[in-house]
Design a protein that fits this description.
single chain, mainly alpha, 148 residues
Length: 148
Amino acid sequence: MDNGEERAPELRTLRQKVEYMVEKTFPGRKISGRVFADLVKERGGSLSHSYFSNILAGKVTQPSEEILKALGLGFGVDWRFFKEESEVVDDVVAGLQFLAKRRTGEISGLAGRGLDEDGLPPELLQFALALLRDAEHRGPAAGGGQRG
């Protein structure tokens, strides 16, 4: 039964991670290797369109650190997300889920005191998402409704 909650996907391979990022970064759009390579170049990196296409085709599984950094630039995430056994995968997924809920209006605002230029720490994003999940399970009658 789908209760509207997005489950964290299993992101083990480079291809799975890149496909996930394409879906979340460019929702509803098909992004060509050339468009993505141009985006990376605009952001100061270098990645050939054919190499990006080969990643999506599963032909590239262990690229260099420079390629991972280019992917990070293109998607606007920490490049370590694309490393094998990455510890930042969960943090990036939590951040994307948070942004998606903000975009759909499930989160209307958030205030933080003492934040630095990096914004909310991943632990706080995870906590905020857990609160939203709890509120969704309780429903509007239990205080999860909107205020006027």
